[in-house]
Amino acid sequence: MLRALKSKRVTELRSQQQLRYSDQTIVITIIRSRRRRRKLSLQVGRSGVVLRAPFSTLQADIDEMLIRNRDWICQRQQVVFLQQGDVLRFQSGELHDYLGAPLALRIVAGARRAKVLAGDGELCVHGVNDDSEQVRRVLQQWYLRQAQQLFAERLALWASRLPWLSGVPELRLRRMRSRWGSCSAEGRICLNTHLIKADLRCIDYVIVHELCHIQEFNHSPRFYALMTEAMPEWRQCKAELEAVGARIVRE
Ligand SMILES: [Zn+2]
């Protein structure tokens, strides 16, 4: 006997869609509800961007609402991001930096092995439960692997461009709260793992700074002349990094 499932009437339907805005992708959670009569509402908070709509709202009306409000959504998201405060909660919807862009954390249970995928405005952590300590650990390992790969590539690239270097210096990574990098007397470079959350320009700026120390082991005018020669826009990159600094060293 094949019995038709007696379905419980769905009162709420959740879905997600993406809103593209200049070079950003913002994830919007759409909640269609039978309890809601007429109006569409838009909320930007710690759990992300949520649009609530009556159950039978046309997709075209939702799209129109999002496009009409995209300046506001973007500005609000920045404000929420800056107000997130010192403590990371590692909960879905929380914004996390990666290569200079805010990504909304999404925790996906079910996969056998923990893995992290970044893209389309999201940072998806698969194979973990809602346990924030576990999410934190998985994310930290992922950031470290991304940093190891990218920093080594950028270090090799800049080392090949700077005439005083004959090879690629040895690289170490450390999670630090108060410095971006260092250069030892033996010419070994140490970079802060958290830099992977900053824009590539900022990462390059720190690498170039440390590579200049191999030639000038001080912060003399000669050192800064070397910086300007190697990377004419370094002051701007430094200011950019300082602007996001406190945020990206949070753990
Ligand atoms: Zn220095």
TrEMBL record:
This is M48 family metallopeptidase. Signal peptide: none annotated. InterPro entries: UTP_pyrophosphatase-like, YgjP-like_metallopeptidase. It comes from Zhongshania aquimaris. Residues 38-242 form the YgjP-like metallopeptidase domain.
